[in-house]
Design brief:
Elements: E1 23-27, E2 49-52, H1 56-67, E3 72-75, E4 87-91, E5 94-97, H2 108-113, E6 123-125, E7 130-133, E8 143-146, H3 150-158, H4 162-186, H5 201-208, H6 212-221, H7 225-233, H8 236-243, H9 247-258, H10 270-277, E9 281-282, E10 285-286, E11 290-292, H11 296-309, E12 313-315, E13 319-324, E14 337-340, E15 352-355, E16 365-368, E17 374-375, E18 391-398, H12 402-405, E19 423-426, E20 449-453, E21 468-475, H13 489-506, H14 510-513, E22 518-520, H15 522-529, E23 565-567, H16 581-595
Parallel strand pairs: 2-3, 3-12, 7-19
Antiparallel strand pairs: 1-13, 2-14, 4-5, 6-11, 7-8, 9-10, 14-23, 15-16, 16-17, 18-21, 18-22, 19-20, 20-21
Length: 597
């Protein structure tokens, strides 16, 4: 009976559909462009699994599903694969990683399992990785340059505090031990607490095995558990004040605690956001970050190649939307979903269909077939998912003179130097202390926190000879402006001018070198990439929306209320960033379910 009953992905024209009752795929016209040379020439009549949205997680899920023998299709709304991990030529001759722009968090198992290097992935590590210039009434003004050479990094920190220079290696080791302890939790579904006491004795014993990663983490943390618990729950300002005394170092480190978060360094739980940003590795080096050669789209292309090489069919400009009976559902809201063959829904006219709280949905909303009245799940099972964006992206092509003006205040050398390899933190105290708190976010920060990257220094193929591309992630910017105003062109340009004026203070002549710009506010990030509220993590990374509670407590194990429908995007555990873990974990859950049909 397995393989014959239940959900079949009938996608070819004129085929009868046996998707869960009330669901259908709205396909674009037959002329829609094929996204990948290794994919099928046309949609087949049946698939075992269909991934909606070709973001990096969706592509990872497809690769693992096809690797396990499930016939898999990936359908993407946009003309380009990768979701937020894309490379786009916004200005002729200049290629930008238009949304995500750095790589570190991608799980090592995915590199190995999908043989991404064989499929063309090449990473350019940044070392040094962080440059913080200071505006000071002294000549020359100072800057803080952090890299992987501990001696050189301590020497840099010693400009501001000998005590901090001595404490820094111990701080790095402390955070490293915590990352290693939590690492097993990233590669497994969260523990299903509701299932622990259910079923037969044998089933209960099997369910206890899901506690293994959690127990491993606890044992690894050992007697230091109370101190690590404080890192997860306290404001990062409290943690950094415990370790260090110099403002430039604390501001630089605090940046990772607020990037993409609707939080300040004084917000409880902001320590976890910092931890999330140091969980990655590149080429075996913990905490390292780098640029993908060719931009982030090259990573998505490598994953797509790995999936297609195993037989997955991948299409762009193919899904116009996913619809629930009686209501259209724009496809950005559907990205991050996986549909797999399942047993028939037991009572078709009375079963629940679901507008699932994936990327772009704020809550779970269920209704019975043939009825418009919603079904209300238990009150505590579906809390509101907080997903407000806090940052904006600006991309600018720079003229050939840019690296000369880029030899800015506090840079240790003229022209292209170590300060240009990493990301620079710009603004008064990196803008962190002076930025408004989330409750005040109806106005843009007058002195924004700016993370500025120039990837073309290490990857010159992104720009014409002698030119460069620069990407700026800035905070804080609200989704809706004061008075309920939306982001129009005037508001976008006014904010971009504020950002560029700030950079000009540090790098005189910067504005004159800019020959174009692409400004993406939180609403733009939602409209183009389907990021809910413009949130780069597909939902807040606060403790109430992590692990058991991501995206909501009842459905943290990737299975949705619809049999055969799974969450595989960053809105699921372990969260946002170009990590791939949600796609891999969801695929493994789906594969296990498929084999038990």
């Amino acid at each position: 009976m397995a393989g014959r009953c239940g959900l079949r992905g009938t996608l070819g024209p004129g085929c009868s559909s046996r998707w869960p009752q009330g669901w259908r795929l709205s396909l674009r016209p037959p002329g829609a462009r094929l996204a990948h040379a290794g994919a099928a020439a046309q949609l087949q009549q049946e698939y075992d699994a269909v991934v909606i949205g070709a973001g990096h997680n969706g592509l990872v899920a497809a690769a693992y599903l096809q690797r396990a023998g499930l016939r898999t299709a990936v359908l993407e709304r946009r003309h380009v694969l990768g979701g937020a991990a894309v490379t786009e030529e916004i200005v002729p001759g200049f290629k930008f990683s238009r949304a995500s722009y750095l790589l570190s968090l991608l799980r090592p198992q995915i590199y190995a399992d999908l043989e991404l290097q064989r499929h063309g992935l090449r990473v350019l590590p940044r070392d040094p990785y962080s440059f913080t210039p200071l505006l000071e009434d002294r000549s020359p003004p100072r800057s803080l340059l952090l890299g992987h050479g501990m001696a050189q990094t301590q020497q840099q920190i010693a400009q501001f505090s000998q005590k901090d220079a001595q404490a820094y290696p111990e701080y790095e080791a402390f955070m490293g031990r915590m990352v290693l302890a939590l690492d097993p939790l990233l590669d497994a579904p969260p523990v299903d607490t509701a299932a622990l006491g259910k079923g037969s004795l044998l089933q209960q014993l099997r369910n206890l095995q899901t506690l293994k990663p959690l127990l491993q983490a606890g044992l690894a943390l050992g007697r230091q558990l109370p101190h690590y618990y404080e890192v997860l729950t306290a404001p990062i300002s409290k943690i950094l004040d415990h370790w260090f005394e110099s403002e430039p170092l604390k501001a630089t480190l605090a940046t990772d605690a607020v990037i993409g978060a609707m939080a300040s360094p004084h917000t409880p739980g902001s320590g976890y956001v910092l931890l999330h940003h140091v969980m990655g590795e590149l080429e075996g080096r913990r905490g390292a970050w780098g640029y993908v050669a060719g931009g982030m789209g090259a990573l998505s292309h490598a994953i797509a190649q790995a999936a297609a090489a195993r037989g997955a069919h991948i299409f762009a400009e193919k899904v116009g939307g996913v619809c629930e009976r009686g209501a259209a559902w724009p496809s950005p809201q559907a990205a991050g979903m996986l549909l797999v063959k399942s047993c028939p829904l037991p009572v078709p006219r009375q079963c629940a269909t679901c507008c699932w709280a994936g990327p772009g949905r704020r809550r779970v909303s269920c209704c019975r077939m043939g009825q418009s009245q919603p079904l209300h799940p238990p009150r505590n099972s579906c809390p509101r998912i907080l997903s407000s964006g806090s940052g904006s992206l600006t991309h600018a092509p720079l003229s050939p003179r840019s690296m000369q003006v880029g030899a800015c205040t506090g840079t240790p050398c003229a022209g292209e130097g170590p300060g240009h390899h990493g990301c620079g933190c710009w603004g008064r105290r990196c803008g962190v202390a002076g930025a408004p708190l989330p409750a005040q976010l109806v106005y843009c920060s007058p002195r924004p926190m700016i993370e500025l990257c120039i990837p073309s220094v290490l990857d010159p193929g992104l720009a014409p000879p002698g030119c460069h591309v620069v990407s700026l992630f800035t905070q804080y910017t609200p989704s809706v402006l004061a008075g309920g105003r939306s982001w129009d062109e005037q508001a976008r340009n006014a904010y971009a001018d504020t950002v560029f004026d700030c950079i000009e203070d540090y790098a005189p002549g910067f504005k004159a070198s800019v020959i174009g710009r692409d400004i993406l506010t939180p609403p733009d990030l939602e409209r183009i990439f389907g990021l809910p509220g413009g949130n780069i993590f597909h939902g807040g990374m606060s403790l109430d929306q992590l692990y058991f509670a991501r995206p909501v407590p009842s459905y943290s194990g990737y299975r949705s209320p619809i049999p055969g429908l799974y969450l595989c995007g960053s809105g699921a555990h372990p969260g946002g960033g170009v990590m791939g873990a949600a796609g891999r974990n969801a695929a493994q859950v789906a594969i296990r379910d498929f084999r038990h049909l």
